[in-house]
Amino acid sequence: MAKSASKAAAAERQATVDVNVLKALGHPLRQRILQVLYDRVASPSQVAKEIDEPLSNVSYHFKILVKCEAVELVRTEPVRGALEHFYRHTMLPALSAPEWESLPQGMRDRIFDQTLKQAWDHVAEAGAEGFKDPRASVVWNPLDLDDEAFRQLGAELERLIGFGLALQEQSRARSAPEELEKTELTLLHFHRA
User: Is the per-residue pLDDT at 186 higher than 90?
Assistant: First the structure.
């Protein structure tokens, strides 16, 4: 009895997450493509050069992202006798807290590993130069929280991310692309070992 109830609960949880979101975020290369397209419109060829991946791999994953409705074609341009296709993102490369909670543990582990590796790669690439600006932040605070406080802090961090995205849209509306500072916000809130 308990087994079938837990299977039903797991199926219900999984059904609450958009299958397209899972498929789009289910591969590290698709996450990277979405991150590039989050900054601008680009073609698979441009993305392949930027992330240093073979064009055939990038094109394959673009096709999956189109099927998942995570990207959309915005224009084509003739290039050397062929048409180059340019896409923009239609999906953020992230899951909301309720979507994350509804995922099976194995899927959460896989997406977490991919995301953490990419975040660390970006920190390593930025190196000390990325943190020279006195407005940059590195914060580390061990906390002792009960379950309610842990939940409240998670909700507040999600609001902070939304605030950052709203500030980005305001910045893009009032400034030329070359005037925008390329920054990155990485938040980690977890149970210590």
Answer: no
